[in-house]
Design a protein that fits this description.
Strand content: over 45%
Distance between the termini: 69 Å
Largest sheet: 6 strands, mixed
């Protein structure tokens, strides 16, 4: 009972949650009361990982302890698949030392249409989009970022291919050179005409991408390598069709 009261206190006094759904207008910010309760539960679990909490501590005291430790736990978001087969809850935790970095915690709930809803953790960050594929698989495109060095930041995107079999969630590889999952982290300072992206064209069944790397921080070389290519979705797999690589040696151009 104390735990339930604590959850209601969290909902009433502190948090405003948002939901991104592809079932409705993507500009809407709507969340059900049930999803609010689930987010509050996950946030409470995360708070216990970062600080010691008993049921006598107030919301203000929790926030003060987190603030003093330079830790911020976001309100969280919920993203639904377009067919309402599953939803993903994501909470960002920002921790600051010499500089700040974030960790993302996500949970996927599926079998939503049945009375046997299943939930488990899933290794994704901020979900940008969920795409229904023709063979009951789903493409999840996510983004994240960080500051691995004092003068260096990175922006990352990744693609995840999943499906469901009875009570199980299955992760499928997206082969890209030597990697089992396609994604990138682009350093700041790369000179490109357009921002980096991963996009999926549902009519063409093509996933395209555009990103760059710079080696000024890791190797001391002021060289941009820009990658642009596309995958075709064939027989349940993303197959790399083509990739164009442009090398811009800015040291030679000085």
């Amino acid at each position: 009972m104390k735990f339930i009261l604590c959850i209601f206190s969290i909902l009433i006094t502190s948090f405003v949650y948002s939901i991104k759904t592809q079932r409705d207008d993507p500009g809407q910010n709507i969340i059900s009361f049930q999803d609010s309760l689930i987010l509050a539960k996950y946030i409470a679990e995360l708070e216990k990982e970062y600080i010691e909490i008993d049921y006598t501590i107030s919301r203000e005291e929790i926030q003060q302890i987190l603030s003093e430790s330079r830790t911020n736990i976001s309100d969280g978001v919920v993203v639904y698949s377009a067919d309402s087969t599953f939803k993903i809850f994501t909470i960002e935790v920002e921790g600051c030392g010499a500089y700040c970095n974030s960790t993302w915690y996500s949970w996927i709930h599926y079998n939503l249409a049945s009375s046997l809803e299943i939930n488990r953790t899933i290794d994704v960050a901020n979900v940008l989009s969920i795409h229904n594929l023709p063979d009951k698989k789903y493409l999840i495109i996510e983004e994240s970022g960080g500051r691995p060095a004092s003068v260096m930041t990175v922006y990352c995107q990744a693609a995840n291919l999943i499906s469901f079999s009875k009570d199980s969630m299955i992760s499928h590889p997206i082969l890209y050179h030597e990697e089992q999952q396609f994604g990138f982290c682009q350093e700041n300072g790369v000179e490109m005409e357009d921002p980096p992206y991963i996009r999926y064209d549902e009519s063409q069944k093509v996933m395209s991408y555009f990103y760059g790397n710079n080696y000024a921080y890791s190797l001391g070389l002021d060289i941009d390598t820009i990658f642009q290519g596309k995958f075709n979705y064939i027989n349940g797999n993303f197959i790399l069709e083509s990739e164009k690589v442009i090398v811009n040696n800015r040291e030679e151009n000085k």
